């Protein structure tokens, strides 16, 4: 039972002390920026990843203009993707985030924001890289 409590305390900590809040330089060629909105409530999340030459995510920063569940979801997801390869990060599902954070059904879309923001940041990074690789 104490293990379970320790787990829940860790989860609640993402609400009170969100990790990786901030901004990366969006002009850095190794930074991808995702900006997404939730149609259900109008909340907005920006998530940025910094990727090394091996396709590994080495840094993550986010800013969420939204509810506490969206902030906890992005904090949790940001810790999850740090150190992952892009293809692994792409497979993160909002339902996993929601389950781990015990989000109630009405808050499912808040974790969807985090999944969408990760995908959007990966797409932005890949688009940037393919433009750089294009011969003049
Ligand atoms: Fe607090 Fe599950 S995270 S009850
Ligand atoms: Fe809309 Fe949480 S992101 S209520």
TrEMBL record:
Pathway: Cofactor biosynthesis; iron-sulfur cluster biosynthesis. The keyword Metal-binding applies. Its cofactor is [2Fe-2S] cluster. Transmembrane segments: none annotated. One of its GO terms (biological process) is iron-sulfur cluster assembly. One of its GO terms (cellular component) is mitochondrial matrix. The keyword Mitochondrion applies. It is found in: Mitochondrion matrix. It comes from the Eukaryota. Keywords: 2Fe-2S, Iron, Iron-sulfur, Metal-binding, Mitochondrion, Transit peptide. GO terms for molecular function: 2 iron, 2 sulfur cluster binding; iron ion binding. Its main location: mitochondrion. Residues 6-129 form the NIF system FeS cluster assembly NifU N-terminal domain. Scaffold protein for the de novo synthesis of iron-sulfur (Fe-S) clusters within mitochondria, which is required for maturation of both mitochondrial and cytoplasmic [2Fe-2S] and [4Fe-4S] proteins. Belongs to the NifU family. This is Iron-sulfur cluster assembly protein. It comes from Zancudomyces culisetae. The chain holds residues 26 to 161 of 161 of the full protein.
């Amino acid at each position: 039972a104490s293990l379970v409590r320790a787990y829940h305390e860790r989860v609640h900590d993402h609400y009170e002390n969100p990790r990786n809040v901030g901004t990366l330089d969006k002009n850095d060629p190794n930074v991808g920026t995702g900006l997404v909105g939730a149609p259900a409530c109008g909340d907005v999340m920006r998530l940025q990843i910094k990727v090394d030459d091996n396709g590994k995510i080495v840094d993550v920063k986010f800013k969420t203009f939204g509810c506490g569940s969206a902030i906890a979801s992005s904090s949790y997801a940001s810790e999850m993707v740090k150190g992952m390869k892009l293809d692994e990060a792409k497979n993160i599902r909002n339902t996993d985030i929601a389950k781990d954070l015990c989000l109630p059904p009405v808050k499912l879309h808040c974790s969807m924001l985090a999944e969408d923001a990760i995908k959007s940041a990966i797409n932005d990074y890949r688009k940037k890289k393919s433009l750089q690789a294009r011969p003049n």
